[in-house]
Amino acid sequence: MAMDLSWQFLFFSLVTAFHVTVTVAQEQPLRHFCINSTGNFTSNSAYETNLNQLLSSFSLNTPNDRGFYNFSSGQGSTIANAVAFCRGDLNSSDCFNCINDAYRELRNRCPYRIEAIIWYDYCTFRYTNRSIFGVRDVDPYFFMWNSNNVSNVDAFNQALGSLMDKLRDAVQVGTSLGKFATGSIQVTPFQTIYARVQCSNDLTQYGCRSCLSQAIVYIPRCCDSKQGGRVSLPSCNFRFEIVRFYNRTPADIDTNDTTTTGYKSNSSRTTIIISILAVAFAALLISNVICIILRFRKRKLKPQKHEATEEGDEIATADSLQYDFNTIRAATNRFSDADKLGQGGFGAVYKGILAGGKLIAVKRLSTDSGQGDLEFKNEVQLMANLQHRNLVRLQGFCLEGNERLLIYEFVHNGSLDKFLFDPAKRPYLNWEIRYKIIKGVARGLLYLHQDSQLRIIHRDLKASNILLDAEMTPKIADFGMARLCPVDQTQGATSRIVGTYGYMAPEYIMHGQFSVKSDVFSFGVLVLEILNGQRNNAFQNGSYMENLLSFAWRNWKAGTAMDLVDPSLRDGSTSEVMRCIHIGLLCVQENVAQRPNMGSVALMLTNYSTTLPLPSEPAFLMHSRTQSVMQQSEDLDSGATASSGSKNDIGVVSENELSISETYPR
C-alpha cells in the first residue's frame, strides 16, 4: 500500500510538472458574482449602451499600468465603470485575451445586473455604475484550497506566515511589476512553499496592505494545514502551493529556490520537470525509509505502553512533545538566576538555549501541584495543537518526578506592558505598530473563539499577556493549560473566578458567567489602553485617579475622543484611531448582547465600509467595587509566556496554571 501511494505521488508530481510549465489560458473562470445590492438595468437602457461600449476600443496597444486597466463609458447616473488587472507574470497577449474573455463571460452570466465581478487565474474583471478607481473593496470574496494536508503543520504555518508578511510588505510599496510579487520559502529540505500576492495597482500603499491583511485573515478558515490555497477579493488576492505555479519575474523575492525560468522556455521547462522528478524520487525513497523506521520504533515501544485505551493513545501522541529533563536543565544552566526571565505566582520563567542554538522559554511550574500526570499531558497536547501566528507556541513539556516544565517559543521583545506602560519605551510604539498589535490580537482571539478545533475562552487577556516578537508581531500568551470542563464548572458559569481586575467583564466578576464575550470585554479594555498608554485600573487624569473607560466615554460623548489618545500618536491616522476608540467602546458594553463577537471586530478593523453601531455607556462597576484591591500590575519582564505576578491576579482553579481557559467542542 505504501508503494502504491508513493507511485501516486510520483504520478501527481509528473502531472504537476506539466501544469507548472504549460501557459495556455484557462477557459473557465474561478468564480463570479452578480451583485444583488446595486440592482438590475433594463434592456436597451442608457447603462446597457455604456456597458456595451466599455471595451469597444480595447486592444493590445491600449495604455495600461503594468497590466492594470481602468475603463469608463458614459457619464452621470448611467456611467459604466470597469477595472481589470492581470497577474504581473503574464505577457500582454495573455492579459489581453483574459480580459476580453472575462468581459464576455460576465455579460453572459449576469446579463442585466448593474454590478458584477469575475475572477480567472490570470485576471480579475469587474464593472459597476459607481466609482471604483482607487477604492479598496474586500467584498465579495472567495477561497479555494488544495485537498492535501501538510505533515508538519506548525513548521508549515510559521514559514507561510513569514513568507506572506514579506510579500505583503513588498507589494504594498510596489515592485517593477506594479503591486505584484512572488516568492518562496523552504519549510524542510524537501518542501518549499511558493506564493504570489497581488493588489490592484490603483490602491494606495495603505489600501493594498489593508486589503491583503483582510485576505490573510481567511487562511485559518480555508486553508489551515493544507498544501495550498488561494483567497481572492475584488482589490487583491494571493495563492500559495508547494509547487511553483507562476513564472519567474524581477518581482520574485525567492531566497531558497535558485532555479531559473524563462517564460515558455523549453530548456527551463525541462529543468523544472527534472527537478520535480528528482524530488519525487527522493520523497519516494524517504517515505519508504520512514515507514521502516516507524514500524521498528512502534514495535520497540509497544511493551512500554501503559493502557490500551483512548487515553493511552493520547499519551503516546503527547510523548512526542516531551523533553528530557536533563536537556532542559542544561539549556537553562541548571535554572540559574542569570537566565531567569521572571517570577510569577505559578513558577519562574527561564531563558534556554538548546544544543542546536535554538532559543526557548521554560516555565518551571510549582512543585506542589495536585494535577495528575495524565491530565497534565492531555492539556499540553491540547494547547500544543493551537497553531496561529498571533498565539505563543507551546513546543513541549517535561514531566519528571515533581518537576513540570512547559517549553515555549522564545519571544524576543517581551510583553506589551513593558513598552506600553513605560514612558521611556512607549514612544517606540508608533501608531503603525499599535494598530498592528490591535489587529493581531483580534486575529488571535478570533482563532481561539471560532477557527480552532475547540472554542477556547482566555479569561485573562491583558497587556502583560501579549508578547511581541522581533518584528513587534503580537502573540497572545498564558491561554495555556486549557481545561475540558472541570467538574466544578459548566460551559457558562464557574464557582471560582480567575483573571485580572480591570479587564474582567462585570457578569464574570459578579456572577461567574463567562463566554467569548468576556474576552471581547477584555479586548476592549486592552484597545483603549493601547490608544492611551496607561493602565485601565491606574489611569491618571490630572491630579486624581479615574477609570479609563469612564474617561473614554465622557470624551466620546463630548466629541473630544482624541483627548484620550497618547500624544505621541497624534501624527497617526485620525480615522483609524477614532475607529479603534469606537470599537473599544463597543467591546466594553455592560450588556453582553451589545458587544460584538471577535469575527465582527476583526471585520470592523479591516473593512472601513462596515458601519459601526453607536456604543452605549460602558460598564464601570468593576472599578467602583474593586478599587480597594486594584494596584498597578507587577508583571514579568519575560520573552516567554510567563505568568503575571501582579497583585491583582485573583482566584485560581489549578495551582500549576497561569490562567485557565475553557474549551468547548464544536
From TrEMBL:
One of its GO terms (cellular component) is plasma membrane. SUPFAM superfamilies: Protein kinase-like (PK-like). Residues 335-620 form the Protein kinase domain. One of its GO terms (molecular function) is ATP binding. Residues 625-666 are annotated as: Disordered. InterPro entries: GNK2 (IPR002902), GNK2_sf (IPR038408), Kinase-like_dom_sf (IPR011009), Prot_kinase_dom (IPR000719), Protein_kinase_ATP_BS (IPR017441), Ser-Thr/Tyr_kinase_cat_dom (IPR001245), Ser/Thr_kinase_AS (IPR008271). It is a single-pass membrane protein. Pfam families: PK_Tyr_Ser-Thr (PF07714), Stress-antifung (PF01657). It is found in: Membrane. Keywords: ATP-binding, Glycoprotein, Kinase, Membrane, Nucleotide-binding, Phosphoprotein, Receptor, Repeat, Serine/threonine-protein kinase, Signal, Transferase, Transmembrane, Transmembrane helix. GO terms for biological process: defense response to bacterium; immune response; signal transduction. Residues 656-666 have a biased composition (Polar residues). Residues 29-132, 138-245 form the Gnk2-homologous domain. ATP binds at K363. Residues 1-17 form the signal peptide. The chain crosses the membrane at residues 272-296. This is Receptor-like protein kinase At4g00960. It comes from Gossypium hirsutum (Upland cotton). The lineage of its organism: Eukaryota, Viridiplantae, Streptophyta, Embryophyta, Tracheophyta. The gene is LOC107891817.
